[in-house]
Amino acid sequence: MRMKTASVREIRAAVSSGHMSATEIVEACLANIKAHDPGLNCFTHVSETAARAAAQSLDQRIAKGDAIGPLAGVPFAVKDLFDVAGEVTKAGAQLRAAAPPAKTDADLVARLKAADAICLGRLNMDEFAYGFATVNANFGTTRNPYDPTRLAGGSSGGSAAAVAAGLVPMTLGSDTNGSVRVPASLCGLFGLRPTHGCLPMKGVFPFVEQLDTVGPFTQTIDDLAMTYRVLASTSEPKRKKRSFRVARLDGWYRRNGDPDGNAGVDALAAVFGDAPLIELSLTEAARSAAFLVTAKHGGLLHLETLQANAMGYDPAVRDRLIAGIALSDDKVQLAKSIIQQFNRQLAAALSKFDLLMAPSTPSTAPKISDGWIEVDGKRVSARANLGLYTQPLSVAGVPILSVPLKRPGKLPLGVQLIAKKGREEQLFSAAEHLSRAGLIGFDPTPMPALEPIS
Amino acid sequence: MNSRKFRLPACNTVRPMPKMHQSNPFSNWILHPFAMTQPPKALASDRARIADELAQAKALQLLTDPVIEAGVESNLALLQTHYAIVLAAHNALDAVSK
Fold it and tell me: Which residues are paired to A190 by β-bridges?
């Protein structure tokens, strides 16, 4: 078994059957991180000692015949905004370097550990999660494993790149405006933004609480569903939905981006039969409303720290946060009223259709040295516009799964599957169906083979 | 209201970079994080609103360095373009409902 392609399910099976020990798994991952992370810059901290101790403890329990959890021996890592007991939660910010270590694990980290998954470390991000690029003035830029000269996307770029490179089979990220879905799309992974409020946020450094969610990245939909069920403390449904009424999002989503994205949407939707194009007329306004609300509420969270130490921030993040704080209340109120109206449009669409589909990003991963993408034939800033398609939908609180189109030999591109609140399992069923049809799935990166485990 | 004259940047025009950005390969887009397409030129009323907001940031003692002030002003101008989109949508909805 090569760690680069080992799935969550395979690792769990290997450990529980005694075919491999948790220690062997962890050592292989640590060796891969040591060998390959310097070229990618996914990790900001590797918890070698704690991971080895957890693996050894699990191996001892297995040797004694104790019951083990559903993710036994599965290595994972977290975006640098999750509390892990004994570690400093920097949220990608150097000014938090002197913050006291977390006393306890974030609830979701605790749930993964209770399922016997093993935490290997912390992952790079845009400072305070404000960006779509994982370009961090303090911790450097995370590179895309498909092409290290390109961005991994953000703000959970370290989380996505680590899974795409096969350094760990599963990671956690956060998604306020698209920070799971954008890097999932650019790194060719499955990435979930769950229903807002369905997973506990205790121990997660906040950005904009009205919009914040956290979710997993994996190489397969099976792994993602397994992980989500542990995170949400739910079990696999006995009866799965097999047929779906699907619509494709028109207008904003058809005007702007890479034609391959919409061709991919068309191909996926065709699997489920006739899938009309529908337009939500307030999409562009919802995106702008999300910008305004994010700037204001994200900024207010940092007011006191900015007053005390503005120069300690990444300049790009600082200036946006301060502008957000200064934004007049009437603008934000109007933005919120537009969000309500947009949510009504989306709810009406989801009352007629089980699934909506739209591209996840307007382009494949841009070059790091460039920082621009082409939208509507114009060159625009990648950092702001990689979230062009994720941001409007973020305000609705619905679950959205980014799935990777199968396109071997090409740079990855994702499609968003959107469902009603609480219908995550429906998204998993649809994605399983599309995976079996061979239309979506992880394509191995062209990186050199990683450390094998015999 | 701050009475000083504001030098409103053309929103998509790359400004001379402060020294701290010069070694950053992203410096050509880092000050324009909200720009999607060429925004409309700011109206006088927009400039007044941005001036009010900048004054608010000043009152909150957030503009402790000229570099910060330039970056915040630029970002406020760009947020104004998003507000213009929101306002246009609101007005269109209003017109339909009447």
Answer: A218
DSSP string, A221-250: HHHHHHHHHHHHT----SS------EEEE-
Geometric angle at alpha carbon A324, from B44 and A293, rounded to 5°: 100
Q: Which residues of B touch A135 (CB under 8 A)?
A: 26
Of A363, A382, A369, A443, the closest CA to residue A150 belongs to: A369
Token pair belonging to A400: 């959205």
Contact B76 A378 (CB under 8 A): no
Q: Which of A7, A47, A155, A174 is catalytic?
A: A155
Q: Which of A306, A341, A371 sits opposite B28 (nearest CB)?
A: A371
Quickly state the pLDDT bin for A2 (edges 50, 70, 90).
low
What digits encode the pLDDT tens for the residues A416-442? 999 999 999 999 999 999 999 999 999
If pLDDT is split at 50, 70 and 90, which confidence band does A379 have?
Answer: confident
Cα A372 from Cα A241, distance rounded (Å): 41
For chain B, the maximum distance between any two Cα atoms, rounded to a whole number of angstroms, is 54
Q: What's the pLDDT tens digit per position in B38-47?
A: 444 556 778 8
Q: Contact at 8 Å (CB) between A117 and A40?
A: no
Mutate one of A381, A388, A391 to test the B interface: name it (highest B CB count within 10 A).
A381
Strand partners, A119: A76
Interface test with A, best of B8, B15, B86, B90 (most A CBs within 10 A): B86
pLDDT (tens digit, 9 = 90+) per residue, A66-84?
Answer: 999 999 999 999 999 999 9
Rounded CA separation A66/B75 (Å): 57
CA angle A305, A309, A311 (to 5 degrees): 130
Distance CA A193, CA A216 (A): 8
Tokens 């400039």 belong to: B47
